Amino acid sequence: MTTSAIPNWFKPALWAALIWNLLGVFAFIMHLMMTPEMISKLPLDQQAAYSNVPLWSTIAFAVAVFGGTLGCILLLAKNAFATPTFALSLVAIFIQQFYNFIVINSIKMLGVSAVFMPILVIVIAFLLLYLSIKRKQQGWLN
Predict the structure, then answer these.
(1) 42 dihedral zone (left: phi>0; alpha: psi -120 to 50; beta)
(2) What are the tens digits of pLDDT across the range 70-83?
(3) Is the separation of the CB atoms in 75 and 100 below 8 Å?
């Protein structure tokens, strides 16, 4: 397998993806730090949703954001483990979104605008997985 040249946009895009995933880690930490007082200031339906988040959804959230972050670091390090790490992160995203859209029906709770961020998260996760697969095929990852 021959190694092809990496396009000029690849590393800046990967650094941007790392920052994106670090923002996800920050959102996860903020989610964990929500106090009962903070939750009490939300509308009633959102209070119920935040108060009753099942452990499996919280774990999926953690795997999604930490997996995406680790995947970016591995891809920057040219490590082939980036691909399965991104795949695991994507599966976790789907599990988390199952909770958001099926279990608590976030569209009914928050409106159609609740769809945009999850779609963006899924698209970026797919792109990162695709990029890691392509770079592996091109011999760039060890």
Answers:
(1) beta
(2) 999 999 999 999 99
(3) no
- Alpha-carbon distance of 82 to 73, in angstroms, equals 8
The Cα 31–Cα 100 span in angstroms is: 14
Residue position matching structure tokens 């999850």: 118
> Contacts from 127-131 at CB under 8 Å and sequence distance 24+?
128/17, 128/68, 128/71, 128/72, 128/75, 128/86, 128/89, 129/83, 129/86, 129/87, 129/90, 131/10, 131/14, 131/75
What's the token pair of residue 66?
Answer: 């930490």
141 φ, ψ (degrees, to nearest 5): -100, 145
pLDDT in tens, 117-139: 899 999 999 999 999 999 998 88
Distance of CA 60 to the CA centre of its chain: 10
